[in-house]
Amino acid sequence: MAAPFTRVYRPLWRIITTTTLNKGVRNVSSTRQQWSAQNVKTAGVASPWALHGAVCLQRLPVVSQDRSPIEDEFMELMHQMELERSLLSDHELRLLEDAARMSRKQEEESDEEEEDYRDKDIFTAQDLEDIWEQKLKQYQPAQRSQGVDEKGVSSSERCLAESLILLVKKDVGSQKLWLLPQIQWQTGETLRQTAERALASLPVGADLKATFLGNAPCGFYKYKYPKDIQKEGSVGAKVFFFKALLSGHKHLPLEKNSFAWVKKDELQDFLKPEYLKQVRRFIMAL
Fold this sequence. Notes:
Strands 1, 2, 3, 4, 5, 6, 7 and 8 form an eight-stranded mixed beta sheet that branches. By secondary structure, this protein is α+β, with helices and mostly antiparallel strands. It contains eight helices and eight strands, in the order αβαααααβββαββββα. 39% of the residues lie in helices and 20% in strands.
């Protein structure tokens, strides 16, 4: 006897789900194709903006800042309180002992003690203080400041108690402008590598060693080229700034009109207002 015919019914929700998934796959594939075509089209068109990497190189303070009158008064008060509450040191106790022995010697109250010290070279605490005083006179402390007239703004040894920022003079069209060290980006390198190359491309006399603070830019500035140097398809430059701290350099003479180590409050004398506005956003007052 033949087996009865059996119909197989597929649930309606499964048919709908299968159809929706097939449409979704087709939609994703078409979207990917559109993205690929758009990327190919974008890659073929050169950007009218040139990318630049720049470095904000700071020299940290070398010496502490001068104290204010209030700080001097407070320091004197703390020294006086410490002196009043402190115990005598070994040297101070020795001074008192020497003074007492000299007093007894003058009054001739201790003949036996004198016999004990008669054959010995007595080296008192006062003798030590005299030696220390002579050494102190021979000590010459380093200068805490170097005037601008002595070193000039091209030297990083000026204003030792304050933070300095390196500026370089660049040719922008027919103008010579003070800027942070920058250089144009090259294909295949990161923007940080561009900023490092901007520092390394300075004249050999600089020979600056720096520690970069992170891989992300700390600031951004966009400017247009002067009309006399604008080319077809080239409008201007986009500059990405990176922070760095000076870790070492050779003390070699630099061109006075090409380099400048300036304080934060001196930037307005060198930079253009719009450029200065962007730079001040990330300058650290250390």
